Structure formats: structure tokens, C-alpha cells
Amino acid sequence: MTTAGTLPAPATFPPRPQMDTEALYAQAAADRLGFWAEQGRRLSWDKPFTTVLDDTESPFYRWFTDGTLNASANCLDRHVAAGRGDRVAYHWHGEEGETRTITYAALLEEVQRFANALKGLGVTAGDVVGIHLPMIPEAIVAMLACARIGALHNVVFGGFAPQAVGERMAACGAKALVTVDGARRKGRVTAVKQALEEVLETLPDLEHVVVVGAAEAPCPMRPGRDSWYAGLCAAADPECPAVPLPAEHPLFILYSSGSTAAPKGVVHTTGGYLTGVSYTHRVVFDLAPERDVWFCTADIGWITGHSYLVYGPLLNGVTSVLFEGAPDHPHKGVWWELVERYGVTQLYTAPTAIRAAMSWGEELPGRYDLSSLRLLGSCGEPIDPTAWHWYHRVIGGGRCPVVDTWWQTETGSIMIAPLPGATGTKPGSATRPLPGVSAELLDADGTPVTGGTGLLALTEPWPSMLRTLYGDDERYLVTYFSRFGKDTYLVGDAARLDEDGCFWILGRTDDVINVSGHRLSTAEVESAVAAHPAVADVAVVAIPDELTGQAVVAFVTPAGGRPGDAALETELRRHIAVRIGKLARPKRIVWAADLPKTRSGKIMRRLLRDLLTGQETGDVTTLGEPDVMAALTAAVTHPIH
Ligand code: WTA
Q: Could you report the per-residue pLDDT of 129-150, keeping only the tens digit for each?
């Protein structure tokens, strides 16, 4: 491919003996389906597929339809069968420095036991199993055990509040939930199962709760419904053959925020998803299993954890570091300590973490030997050039390429990223679509634009794309395929395309807020705030934030003449933490006697954003009550406290 105008590939990056990247681009361009078929064949199939893509009911695309395979067999059995059972799958590193070394063979054994345990509880193919666990190996065991028997896992981020967990269980009718007695976070233990009790009572479909005993937290157990993970595994048969499943059998549901309050249950299926993650993990990060130690810092509760902490590395037979803790506990240099200790070769993290590390000073990473690193990755939000250069210079010692990878929960795997050693990099740009991916920039009418800014769209189906939103085909169609028709997947991001064909992601065009790489919906936060009895009205907007990328600001009108004061602010912040989770707590609450609304009563969030970022609010003629803005300007510039 041509890289004219882009920065040259770093000269020190070792050549890629195992891959001819030029050929990859050329082959994908010449025969897209043939290219994907070849990627698909790298998996191990019980029955090989003959159909690559079935688009007869587009946009409900189906890939590799007549093939059968099993995700856990691809992640584990085939490596063990090939004599690589002793290879370390995970170096688990606990909060307080404890370690567990888990080989592929050991992981396979535990997965088989837990799969049998699930079967014993009556879980069968097609059932949904919720997983709400911290970053402990049992989370991975639970995911793969589901996959082994054809149950769908629905992982809910450990930081979500009980109510949010309950909503996500109710929405998918989960039959079982795997959770933990207590989760450790920065030296403290939270009693997770105990806090869930109330919400568990409200779930009619939930028959079983399996509890991993991890932190000796108080943990009430209800006989008949609740059982301990360790007891079930000890009693289970150690052999559980993987069930061959059709390629389109759903592998998991993962709830993601959309532009309404109800989260979207993104559904991924088996053959296409695995093809996408194994291919992208291998080519974007230049992985060689016998040489590399991979460290992805994402939580298992997000798509990055699913694709690049669990499925991608295991499919490629790689050794990973799995870290339980927070980046600043027990000290702010802990990631760098782990890089040195395990000889990490590739590190994949989010810009927000890089900015936090920047703010802690470069002498911290300077205390550790980071010379094992060969490549650095970033994802989840735009990486600003300052952070990019710091990452490149301080962490990568100036010798590691930084790959900025653009993708989404819905895309399943990376879509736009440089290929290290082949594509030059540009700080701040995710560069070009990967071989096999068709991304375009469209104007408001859907006409492709070759430069400037526009709406990002994916114009050809790809194997790891979401198949639908769980139980809601209509919302799938409306959200992604209504604006430009059923052949064009609307991403929801605005982007700029430069003269070299490189994409610069500008951010979301819908009401989704990206805080530290976590997606939150404006509407979801608003409905949580509005549920508080002291709130009459609320509008939530995102503002740029140096550390977290974006931050939440809530404009709140108190109810019944109650003053907006520090006491109410504390109450509301606690309320949001309980309803959604701490990550959704606003950075700032502005008390507003009134909110700017159109004559039809629609809140004009644009005006609120402009106000906060100090921009001219411009045209307010569509406002029902134009005076509202003057009062709000005063509230923003002279807060009451
Ligand atoms: C944003 C996370 C800029 C984008 C993998 C997207 C990015 C949303 C990048 C998806 C990047 C992700 N540069 N923005 N490299 N990667 N985004 O579903 O707005 O949690 O639509 O998936 O994050 O977030 P999600």
C-alpha cells in the first residue's frame, strides 16, 4: 500500500517474518470474501464452512453459515492438543501482589469442570448466563464454560451498581448469574453478592446464583438458588467435550449504552466474531505466541476485555498478564512494575490511563526496566497528540510503534488501525481501515466525501459485526441501518479524512458520553437523576476533560422549592452511584431554575454545552423561553457554592 505523506514506519520495529502486510491489503482489495474465508479457516472447525457470507436478509448478515465450531475448543483444546498445554495463558496478578500462573492445560481443566457444573444446574445451549465478577481468572473460566456448552454469556462490568446489573439480567432473561462474595478495590472489600440480594429477588427468570469466594466478604446464601463456585467445580466431572455449534450460534450479549435510557444488548455470534478478533489481534499487534507477553489493561466487562483480554489472546495461543487491580494501587507505578516483572512485549490501554500516568510524572515509569516492550496500543477514545508522544517517548522509549485502534462494541474487533512495521503512524489518527474493512466518510445526505469532515460509516459487512440487539431487531435496524439504508452501517462517530486517506475520529454524534473510554448514555444518566424525588428536571451533557476525555455535567432543577445546595449535590451523586455506578457521577452539577427547551419541549443540550465550554450560544430563537439562557449563564459562571 502507499503510505505517502504518513510518517514512515519506525525503522527499529523488527520486520514481520510471519506476515506479508502488503499482500494482505492487496488480497483483501481484490477478493474481500476470499480474504475473510482465509481468515475464517485459521480457526479450527468441526465442520468446515462452504458459504462465506449470506446477505439474503441484509442487514441481518450471516457468516460461515454451514460451518460448526466451538469457541472454547478454539481457545483451549487445540493448543493443548498441539502439545502447548504447559504454556502460560495468564499470569494473574492480584491487588496485593499475589500471583497465579495459569497454563492452557489448567485453564482447560477448570473450564470443563465449570461447564459441567453449569450443565448440572440445568443450563443448556441458548440460555443466558450473567457474569458479574472482578478481574479474577474465574471470570474467564465462566465465559469459556458458557461457550463450551453453547450458553450465551452476558458480562456486566464489576463497577456497575446492583440496579444496573439487575436491569441487564432482566433484559436478557438470564437463567443463572455468576458473581463473587466480595471485590477488592484499592485495599478495600465491597460485599458484591450481599448488595445484589434485593435486586436478585426481582428477577423471575433467574434460577441459580453461583458465587466465587474471593474476598471473605459477608455473603448470605439462599439454599436452592445459591451455590459456591469452588464446591460445584470440585464435585464436577473433569471432562466436558466441547459442543460443535453452528457458526451463527450466539456467543454472547454485551450491553452498551445507546442514545436512549435502555441499554442495547449487542449480540455477537461464534464463527464471525472469533474470526475478527483472532485476525485483528494477530495482525495489529504483530503477535508471535512463542515470544510475546501481552498485557491488555481493559476490564473484562467491556468489549475490549472480551476481544483482547479473553478471546483474541487465547485464540492466538498467547501468554497474557491479567491484573486485578487499579492502575494506582498499591502504587502509581504498578503497571510498569508488571511490565518489568513479566517481560511484557505489547501493552494495550486507553488514552485516559495514559493521561493519568502523564499527570503522575515520568520519573515513575523511569524506575522500571521497560525495554521488553515492542509495541503500544491505544483504544476507546481519541488519543490526543500530547498523550501519544508521551506514550511513545516515555513508555515506549521512542522505539515502539503506537497503534491507535478504532472500533466499537458493535464491530466486535478493530476496524481502523495502522499495521505496525507497514503503515506509518500519525499521532491522533487511527489511520486506515484494516484489510477487509470498508470505511467511508459520508455527508449528511449519505454521499461519500473524500476529504474534510463527515459521518463515519462501514459500507461492507464484516464477520465480527453485531448480528442484532438482543430481542429487538427493530432497534438494530433503526439505530444502525435506517439513515443511509441497509447496506451502510452508521457508526455514530464523526471523523475527518485527510489527504492520505487517514481517519481522525472526532467523537460521537449521538447522545453517548465517553468517560475514560466507558460509554454512558445521556438518557440513562438523566433518567437516573430524574428518579430522585428532589429533582424536577434534568439535562445531562458531556464536556471535554483533560483526564477522562469527556466528563458528565448535570443541569438540575430541584423540585418543590428545595434549594440546590451541597447537601443535595452529595445526595444526587450517591444516588447516581447506586443506580448506575460511580463512573456515571457528574463532574459538576449546575442548579438551573429552568432548562432551555424548544417550543415542543425538547431540551437543547447544544446550548448547555456551548455555555459550559464558553462558546457563543448563537441562535436561541427556537427556544420556548429565551430568558432561560441569561439565568443559566449566571449559574454557570457564579456557582452557588
Ligand atoms: C470511541 C470501545 C477515537 C468511538 C472499543 C466509538 C474511539 C466508541 C477509538 C466505541 C479511537 C473507540 N479513537 N475514538 N481509537 N476507539 N472510540 O463500544 O466514539 O466502548 O464509537 O468500544 O468509542 O466505544 P465502545
A: 999 999 999 999 999 999 999 9
Q: Kindly indicate the confidence band of residue 328, based on its pLDDT and cuts at 50, 70 and 90.
A: very high
Q: In Å, what is the CA distance from 588 to each residue of 526, 540, 543, 566?
A: 14, 10, 10, 11
* Pocket of ligand 1, beta carbon within 6 A: 256, 302-304, 379-382, 404-409, 430, 492-493, 505, 507-508, 514, 519
Class of the CATH domain delimited by 21-493: alpha beta
CA of 527 to the centre of ligand 1 (A): 24
Residue 584 · residue 552 · CB < 8 Å? yes
* Neighbouring residues of 178: CB distance < 8 A, sequence distance ≥ 6: 129, 130, 131, 132, 133, 138, 142, 209, 210, 211, 212, 229
Residues 306, 312: Cα–Cα separation, whole Å: 8
Q: How many angstroms does the Cα of residue 415 sit away from the middle of ligand 1?
A: 10
Q: What mean pLDDT value characterizes the chain?
A: 91
- Cα–Cα distance measured from residue 297 to residue 338, given in angstroms and rounded to the nearest whole number: 11
pLDDT at residue 9 tops 60? no
For residue 237, give the nearest of 114, 132, 136, 154 by alpha carbon: 114
Sorted by where each begins, the domain ranges of the chain are 21-493, 511-635
* Alpha carbon of residue 203 to chain centroid: 26
Q: What phi, psi does 503 have (nearest 5°)?
A: -95, 135
Q: What is the pLDDT of residue 4?
A: 33
The ligand 1 atom nearest the CA atom of 409: 18
Q: Find residue 293's DSSP bridge partners.
A: 319
CB atoms within 10 A of CB 110: 22
**Is this structure's pTM higher than 0.70?**
yes
- Has residue 275 got a pLDDT over 70? yes
Q: How far is CA 508 from CA 258, 455, 522, 546, in A?
A: 11, 10, 12, 17
Question: In terms of Cα–Cα distance, which of 300, 311, 306 is closest to 73?
Answer: 311
Architecture (CATH level 2) of domain 511-635: 2-Layer Sandwich (3.30)
Alpha-carbon span 458 to 550, nearest angstrom: 25
Please tell me whether the peptide bond between 8 and the residue prior to it is cis, using omega within 30 degrees of 0. no
